[in-house]
Design goal:
3-stranded antiparallel sheet; 2 domains; 368 residues; Aspartate Aminotransferase, domain 1; globular; 12 strands; alpha/beta
């Protein structure tokens, strides 16, 4: 048998033992380790789901014009940026795009094989580089939350394919600007790819997009999974650089990547409605406040995140698995150890605000 690539254990699979702890102490398991929506899908999506005539034929791989126009309209209303439909294309959810993008970019320019990404971040940024045979290079964040670009080995810059940025950050909840990384990437000839799937959940400042800096050398990636509780629909899109969007759309056609037609129609309707998003914002904010109460009852250091719906607990005295076990034994809640998101987060725990509000409130009350 060859000694080729062996997939590492999937991070969430490593929590099996922690997930058994609540039952051992007579508590209900409340699994908040994954940001899986639990709230209702908006009614307008349920109504459209009955129209299955679009399921007969093959759907458009880059996305129907209806879906792309809806995405363009949403970005205009939400951020004040104008991106034409031809500079937008669909993804089968955002994760497959994150994992597959480095391979497509490397085909386009084989001389570049380095993927830059935040040192504490969604693990698929690094895994996508690995799957493409690229070098994944973690970049630490500076005091302002932006990447410390001066720390990158200068010898790598001529080989950089792209730099991932993520704001609001999963897992930390930090909201940072794009100015420095956009200027830096354009100076060195690589792409900035901004994962903005939590952008609807920025708590105390206006939501921003990287596309405020124009589209040249830039992609923004969005998803309906979080904003619309539509993770099962697998509807996302990327927007930005005209040449790159066109190239990726053609490559992805050959790979057969396409969102089912009915899901595209539902996605277009969801992007046209902001009311259900505001309702969801209220739910997540209330749950984060309750999770802060729970953390305080357990003497765990945590603050309200600047964005996103994850509570990020940091404790220098315990590693993430110890924190996860302690919280599970005290409350039944299972969070994700920080090392899932990078070695520098070994003493952290991520807790997603994805249980019903009443359940979290009951846990908070029991601790009092």
């Amino acid at each position: 048998m060859s000694a080729g690539f062996q997939p590492p254990p999937y991070p969430q699979d490593r929590l099996a033992e922690v997930r058994r702890i609540p039952a051992k102490v007579g508590l209900e398991l409340v699994d908040l380790s994954i940001g899986t929506p639990v709230d209702p899908v908006p009614e307008l999506a349920m109504a459209l789901a009955a129209s299955l005539s679009l399921a007969r034929g093959y759907p458009s791989s880059p996305g129907s014009l209806e879906l792309r126009l809806a995405a363009s309209g949403w970005m205009s209303r939400r951020f004040g940026v104008e991106v034409p439909a031809e500079q937008i294309a669909a993804t089968v959810g955002s994760k497959e795009f994150v994992a597959g993008l480095p391979a497509y970019l490397r085909l386009r320019d084989p001389s570049r094989d380095v993927v830059l990404y935040p040192a504490v971040s969604y693990p698929t940024y690094a895994m996508g580089a690995t799957l493409a045979g690229c070098r994944a290079v973690a970049v630490e964040a500076g005091p302002d939350g932006e990447l410390d670009l001066d720390s990158i080995d200068p010898s790598l810059l001529d080989r950089a394919l792209c730099c991932w940025v993520n704001t609001p950050s999963n897992p930390t909840g930090r909201v940072s600007g794009y100015d420095k990384v956009v200027r830096f990437a354009r100076a060195h000839g690589f792409f900035v790819v901004a994962d903005e799937c939590y952008v609807e959940f920025v708590w105390d400042r206006p939501a921003r997009t990287v596309l405020e800096h124009g589209t040249e050398g830039i992609l923004a990636v969005h998803s309906l999974s979080k904003r619309s509780n539509f993770a099962g629909g697998r509807v996302g899109f990327y927007a930005g650089d005209a040449e790159l969007v066109g190239y990726l759309s053609e490559v992805r056609k050959h790979a057969g990547l396409m969102i089912p037609g009915p899901m595209q129609a539902i996605g277009a309707a969801l992007l046209g409605d902001q009311e259900h998003v505001e309702v969801q914002r209220g739910r997540y904010r209330e749950r984060l406040e309750i999770l802060l109460e729970i953390a305080a009852s357990l003497s765990l250091p945590a603050e309200m995140p600047e964005g996103g719906f994850y509570l990020w607990v940091s404790d220098p005295e315990r590693d993430g698995f110890e924190l996860a076990a302690m919280v599970a034994e005290a409350t039944g809640i299972v969070g994700s150890p920080g090392e899932f998101y990078g070695p520098g987060a070994r003493n952290c725990l991520r807790i997603a605000a994805v249980a019903p509000t009443e359940k979290l409130a009951a846990i908070a009350a029991s601790l009092k």
